[in-house]
Design goal:
This protein is of the alpha+beta class and 319 residues long. It has 6 helices and 14 strands. The protein binds 2-acetamido-2-deoxy-beta-D-glucopyranose (2 copies) and zinc ion.
Length: 319
């Protein structure tokens, strides 16, 4: 009897360390930081409350990507998601810059349908998570440090246009063999991970949060790219046919209670379409113009007030 209890306890500990035995049906019963943590993910990103990091204090320049165009990966359906993991001994792609201090090495990417993050309350049909570890750390070490992991999140939008086949073209060939839970794609394959990236990778929100699956460790620098990748309806349908025990595999939104930073994409450094870039700068310009004009009007009104002997108001340029 006693032995049986000990064995049960040991099995329990082992399961919670491996964190394989959990389900999206019982999120409130997820262990550890999932229920006790304060800075959990995913969150709803309210664009109006995001801090635009104009002075580059938090986001120091653009993101740099090295080696994403040729990545040797294996693919599995692990019963929770479809996951592509980099083959050991293959040159590791690195990301640095933006909010990151130092290099982060690419480990794996996987899919969530529906999206986990929301922007202004809006969810997308799918989200890609590219998981990176601070270069030089082991996974165990990374899970102990607030800056241990960096996850690039790419939101996906569905379109019926033919050109939208391109984005997932690199991984679509894997889908039919990954339909069953705990299935594996037989061979490693070299793919271009850039095709899975947002069309404007320098346009992102960033905040500190957690893994979105048990044990939900709060060790993740999230970089959520807000310009969605366009995928085809046919490909989306194939993905949603994949068996992960449910029709979807996303964690519910968590309290925000922290600062979210917004990158300031500059026209020179990225693939932002020229017209859009031009419009964006016009909007910036017009908002500062509006500020200057309203300051002018305020000053004039103050002159009048002074003249009539009433109280003078402060004039600030806001933007
Ligand atoms: C990809 O990894 C596999 C397994 O390690 C290896 O056999 C194959 O040669 C690699 N492909 C390339 C292009 O390096
Ligand atoms: C990041 O990796 C690149 C390429 O390996 C290297 O040149 C650079 O010095 C690294 N940066 C840091 C901060 O380690
Ligand atoms: Zn994920």
């Amino acid at each position: 009897m006693f032995e049986a209890i000990v064995i049960l306890l040991l099995v329990g500990v082992k399961n919670s360390l491996q964190s394989e035995h959990w389900s999206y049906d019982y999120e409130t019963r997820w262990p550890g930081e999932c229920t006790e943590g304060k800075y959990q993910s995913p969150i709803n990103i309210m664009t109006r409350s995001a801090i635009v990091d104009k002075h580059g204090l938090h986001i120091r320049g653009p993101l740099f990507f090295r080696g994403y165009d040729r990545v040797n990966v294996t693919a599995v359906n692990n019963g929770h998601t479809l996951k592509w993991t980099i083959v050991e001994d293959f040159p590791t792609p690195l990301v640095s810059g933006g909010p990151l201090r130092g290099n982060y090495s690419f480990l794996q990417f996987h899919l969530h349908w529906l999206s986990e993050h929301a922007i202004d309350g809006m969810k997308y049909p799918m989200e890609i998570h590219m998981v990176h570890i601070k270069t030089g750390l082991t996974v165990d070490e990374a899970l102990e440090r607030p800056d241990g992991l960096a996850v690039l999140a790419v939101l996906c939008q569905v379109s019926s246009e033919g050109a939208s086949e391109f984005a997932l073209g690199e991984i679509a060939a894997f889908f039919p063999q990954l339909v069953d839970r705990n299935s594996k794609y037989p061979n490693p394959a070299v793919i271009d991970v850039f095709r899975l990236m947002s069309p404007e990778p320098q346009s992102f929100y960033t905040y500190h949060g957690s893994l979105t699956t048990p044990m939900c460790q709060e060790v993740v620098t999230w970089i959520v790219m807000d310009q969605p990748l366009i995928i085809s309806d046919t490909q989306y349908k194939e993905i949603s046919r994949v068996d992960v025990g449910r029709i979807d595999n996303y964690r519910s939104l968590q309290p925000v209670n922290r600062e979210i930073y917004r990158s300031v994409p500059s026209c020179g450094t990225l693939s932002l379409p020229t017209l859009l870039c031009f419009l964006t700068s016009l909007i910036h310009l017009s908002s500062s113009l509006t500020g200057i004009i309203s300051k002018g009007v305020c000053t004039l009104v103050n002159v009048k007030r002074k003249f009539l002997g009433s109280k003078v108001r402060e004039c600030n340029v806001k933007n």
